[in-house]
Amino acid sequence: MPLLEVKNLKKYYATQKAVDDISFSIEPGTIFGLLGPNGAGKTTLLRMITGIFFPDEGEILFEGKKFDPAADALRIGYMPEERGLYKKMKIGEQAMYLAQLKGLSRPMAYKKIKHWFTKFEMQTWWNKKIEDLSKGMGQKLQFVITVLHEPKLIILDEPFSGLDPVNSNLIKEEIYQLARSGCTIIFSTHRMEQVEEICDQIILVNKGEKILDGTVNQVKQQYKENKFFIGLAKTPPSVNSQTFDVVSHEENNGLMVKIREGYSTNDVLEFFIRQQLPVREFHEILPSLNDIFIRLVEGSAAVTRQFQTVVS
């Protein structure tokens, strides 16, 4: 049974459709990527899932039941992009206060905070104020506050913003560990390389609409362009074949080729064998999520511009 189901969700601001008929489901233990350019509707969608906003239409199911913000909020951890920390408050006191708001007793809150502060090497931070922290240090604190009550659903909006590579890797490993322990994680970002590395399943939203949904591998397979890399044992002569087009010449006697319609990988390999050019390496080149993202979002913008031109 999915931990979270979103069905035909809609949210309007005056005449603008912030979220327009979006549906998806997330299985327990999944790292789920919510992608889209700025203004796509990601934050509005997350605020409905957390109960901050109410949808105008549609429904949200949490563990098979209609989502009840009052009852279910304590089982959700939400790290918003706009960090909500009290700048003048000491870090230890703030962590204790927020942990108790999430339902932990004071002794249990202290135990959990001590565990996470030790794990993230934050033991000396207890009496510091938020305003004295760097952006990266604030990110680490916000992450700890988000997860220390062990929520079933963790929502992270741009969690790596401001982090150096070492701390980015630290947070990333914790995300993996939380998913392995059964937590479901929604990871919202516009940085495709992070999504490609971390997420199991993704959706792409643009202008309030869902335009892509699936596992990372499914999405890449759907938008592949029949391109392959061929590594040869020696520099090839001029290559002309009816089975493929040479896209580019790569380093170390490599070629990137695009197989023409009606032909197969065997036809390509047969060509090089007949040319007595030993093949050292041969693999398919799948598009990156960044390439797919740009293609779909720019394509959507082009359709909109074309429509506006026709109307005017």
What structural class results from the helix and strand content?
Answer: alpha/beta
Output the CATH topology of the largest domain. Answer: Rossmann fold
Number of helices: 10
The secondary-structure element order is EEEHEEHEHHHEHEHEEHEEEHEH
How many domain modules? 2
Largest sheet descriptor: 6 strands, mixed
Radius of gyration: 24 Å
Give the tally of β-strands.
Answer: 14
Instruction: Indicate the CATH architecture of the largest domain.
Output: 3-Layer(aba) Sandwich
- Briefly, what CATH class of the largest domain? Alpha Beta
* Widest β-sheet, arrangement of strands: 6-7-8-3-9-10
Average pLDDT? 86
What is the CATH H-level superfamily of the largest domain? P-loop containing nucleotide triphosphate hydrolases
Shape annotation: elongated
Structure description:
With 312 residues, this protein is an alpha/beta fold. It has 2 domains: 4-221, P-loop containing nucleotide triphosphate hydrolases (Rossmann fold, 3-Layer(aba) Sandwich); 225-285, Alpha-Beta Plaits (2-Layer Sandwich). Helices cover 36% and strands 28% of the residues. The strands form 3 sheets. The protein has a 6-stranded mixed beta sheet with strand order 6-7-8-3-9-10, sandwiched between helices. Strands 2-1-4-5 form a 4-stranded antiparallel beta sheet, with helices on one face. The longest helix is centred in the C-terminal third of the chain and has 23 residues, at 289-311. The chain is elongated, with a radius of gyration of 24 Å. It starts with a strand and ends with a helix. The model is unreliable at 302-312 (pLDDT under 50).
